[in-house]
Design goal:
The complex is a heterodimer of chains A (244) and B (308).
Chain A (H helix, E strand, L loop, with lengths): L6 E12 L2 E12 L3 E5 L6 H9 L6 E6 L2 E2 L5 H6 L2 E3 L12 H10 L7 H15 L14 H14 L4 E5 L7 H16 L3 E5 L3 H7 L2 E6 L2 E6 L1 H6 L1 H8 L3
Parallel strand pairs in A: 3-8, 3-9, 6-7, 7-8
Antiparallel strand pairs in A: 1-2, 1-4, 4-5, 9-10
Chain B lengths: L2 H18 L1 H4 L3 H26 L6 H19 L3 H23 L5 H24 L6 E2 L6 H23 L2 H11 L1 H6 L4 H27 L1 E2 L1 H4 L2 H14 L6 H19 L4 H15 L3 H14 L1
Antiparallel strand pairs in B: 1-2
The chains are: A alpha/beta (244), B mainly alpha (308).
Chain lengths: 244, 308
Amino acid sequence: MTKPGRTLLKVQGLTKRFGGLVAVNNMTFDVHEHEVLGLIGPNGSGKTTTMNLISGAFPPSDGSITMNGQRLSGLAAHQIARRGVSRTFQLVRVLPGLSLVDNVVAGAAFGYRKRWGAEAEQFARGLLERIGLGDHMHLPVGSLTYIDQKRLELARALAGEPEVLLLDEWLAGLNPTELQEGIDLIAELRREGRTIILVEHVMDAIRSLCDRCVVMNSGAKIAEGTPRDVLSDPEVIRAYLGDE
Amino acid sequence: MTGSGWKEIGLAAGLVILAAFVPLVTDGYWLSIAVTAMMYIALATAWTLFSGPTHYISLATGAFFGIGGYLVATGMSDYDISFWVMAAVAPFVAVVLAAIVGAATLRLSGIYFVIFTLGLAEMIRGLVSWVQNNFLGSRGLYVLTDFTEAHIYWMLLIIAAVVYLIGWLIERSRLGFAMKIIGNDEGVAKHLGINTAAAKVALFMITGYFTALVGVVIAPRYSYIEPNLVFSPELSFLVVIMALLGGTQRLWGPIVGVIPFTLIWETISVSFPNATTFYLGLSFLLIVYFIPNGFVGLVEKLARRRQG
């Protein structure tokens, strides 16, 4: 891996209230360039909500998110995407009416580094090859297996060459063989020096992929550090397993 | 640019030239049918620009069309403004309305959008009738010009050709691609960097412009205009039915839907003038039930079967 660089993304006092429910409570953390940051915690701890706040699916109630000193919080999702934040979705969302290549072009045409026409198509084909879908290029999207749909979604997210990539449980729902393929794929992205925030439950993936982890429980940060440190932290173990 | 794209536009240009000869070979009854068909071709193609890729069924056709027809009539009848000036101005009023409707309905999806556009068209019809009856005196408006049926036909043909050309260009542009993505998954579209609101409103404004322009050009044919005639909900439904019959996934879909349906509708209106609403509903059900993807869907299914 490349050495983690300067601070790219800064999350400060991030809070999201849905009516009386505080889904994310005063979260503060930094993401460094070329780093894979794991956002982990038990179900319902607010990880996906945090991802949705960063990508602009909805605005925060309080706090700020900045990237390279530019404020992202308060911007609409499409503006955030254009500034260099790409994402995949917890439940895979490919575009069924478009060809595989067009699915990826969709990520390149409007995103951070824009490509269009023949150049975009060539770039998309290259990405599909790299991500392991080279042989399926002419199949309809609907006939892809679950992991291949996930690959496609990842290729789409990479197509805009984002500064920060958000992967929301990208490894969930894969069988053991697919899981290993998936981990290898993300490990390759890590070696390329991409900046990634990863929401994940698969412990093997967290240990092998993450440079650092932020652990959430009930909407708040309870620990931060290397995977080894946070996973042996008594409070983290209590959050996952309960008191006894 | 792909070869099939040029072939498509070449074929379309050929058809436009052929269609231009229709008034030279026939007049009377068949020309009047041709004018009606050309009106619906322009309307259904304009409708498909927005509703095809987004799958938002708009019932606002009557409202835009009515604005065109009614403004021309008011301008010429009450203010002695020339037809051409009104033809230049009226469609922009529809564009402004489309922008307002678009902005107001951005958060609505699916069925709510349908109901909103229907309600809007009816509201405008009611409002215009009320203003006319209470303030302008309930006299009719006359649109008297020297245009013959052939002139009207050619003007409609030009509008239809321009709408088609614009649709063809949009389909190949980033805007068209954005609309396709929005039609697939609007949430994903936003996260890919597409300003979905702006894209949808832009397309809706283009649809509004040309729909109103058709209303303008057809007004001299009616010569006597009253709000209930031009702000017609039946027109809105007919355009949807014809576009769906043809199929909205391809730009040429509505055209192949309009031609047979115009003939069917003509027969129905003549034979059962008091039951048109019934037949309107019946056709709608039959089309949605038996050919949900229209003729385009049928043709492409057959083509796939022959290939595979």
